[in-house]
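User: Predict the complex.
Assistant: Input components as received:
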Amino acid sequence: MIRRDLNGMTLLAFDWIFLIEKLVLIAVIITASLVIAMYETYAERKVAAWMQDRRGPNRAGPFGLLQPLADGGKLFFKEEIIPNSANKWLFILGPSLAMLTAMMTCAVVPWGSSLHLFGRVIDLQVADINIGILYVFGVVSMGVYGIMIGGWASNNKFSLLAALRGASQVISYELAMGISLIALLMMTGSLSMKTIVEQQIANPHWWNIIYQPLGFLIFFTCAMAECNRAPFDLPEAESELNMGYHQEYSSMKLGFYLFAEYINMFISSAIMATLYFGGYDIPFVNEASLAPNTAAILGVLSLLTKIFIFIFVFMWIRWTLPRFRYDQLMDLGWKKLIPLALANMLITAVVILLKNH
Amino acid sequence: MGVTSILFWSLSALALISAIMVLATKNPVHSVLWLIVVFFAISGHYILLNAQFLAIVNLIVYAGAIMVLFLFVIMLMNLNTATEPKKNLWMKLAGIISGGSLFLILISVVRSSVDMSQKSALVKDGNIGLIDTLGKVLFNEYTIPFEISSILFLSAMVGAVVIGKKN
């Protein structure tokens, strides 16, 4: 990318088309995840209504489809209140961080194979980095700060308690998640998400869910806890904590917190689909027999279908199970999931060792 | 100035300024947050050296886990300027002298090391910092030290549990 001129001095000469291509890709992905997160709120209410035999939102537009827009508009026009005793900068930093970390994860997810346009090959992934899945972990562990800073800066006992709960929950479940992931990585031998998907597409190999069913269940449970979704929504347990870590927030700052949760749900579904369910692989179809552009577009659609199924399962669980008590939550995380994940890792290691000899 | 040197200088400036801010701010929570910024700047340096694994582990372990615990403790202790103990002049003077001499030793070590002086860092290439290389080196050349340090971690964990269960 960097060209050297005759004096040996490096100029700021980029491959501009490459830069524009990536910027367009980033814009498309971010817009798509925002729109999907918007309609997740609609879907959540429709799913809840369906499960409780109600109608759900049906006033704004046909089938209530404009409801998310109305909600967003309402949040934007609400009065913005910063409490007097709050720490002003950190109060603003909290929701910004929550939103930022939620959006940053999509950089390493491979959304499809590659498009061939105008004589260029365009990868449908922002960055295929060597440490792909670890990057996701790094960003997720930064996500804790959004909750903690917001909760502390509001200078409210309930917010602080909820923030501490949220942070300790995320840290506890990150451990089991990491260990269940190690078992998967021992099989793939690569951290790059693109390589993991391509291995699953390759013919004699099935999707990773066949080889790692227990690992997937642990990963799924932990992902639910990381997203603060019911039955793990203790940071927002309104019956004990008034409202949760975002109690003092109003207007769009509150909206950012709520929105970040939906984006997180979308991204974690995308990561589960990528790691365990073949990513953009179309089941029972040999992609190589299709034209590359058709294969890429169908692949993206296939990934989105898998993601929507996961999002539905998230909502299904939320409206089925009651919330855990805090000690039950810690018990499940530390005494059940971590030993299970360790056993899964050891068994996988032994099987791989025996197969190689 | 190439892209790399611009990045290097701005990351170094960021690291230094935020390190000074760690000490300069009165509020302990702000100090912790500035320290997280320092870790980010250092991880940026690792990425410039193409040590991606080291960069991300630095972020996950230090910025993501250890600093969260720091923040926990500080938030729960509810420190503010009123409860901060006043240190007398002699204490401050002793601190300056001991810190200054440590700094001097560090500088002299860096200056006098023969290996370092003639070498320049591999920027943007080289695969020393990638996870494949690191794993192979750790498990081929340094197996025993690696295992011993893991046992050390385990014993520290057991110790923490024992202390926690005392009552």
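Strands of chain A lie at 114-117, 120-123.
Let me know if you want any component modeled separately.
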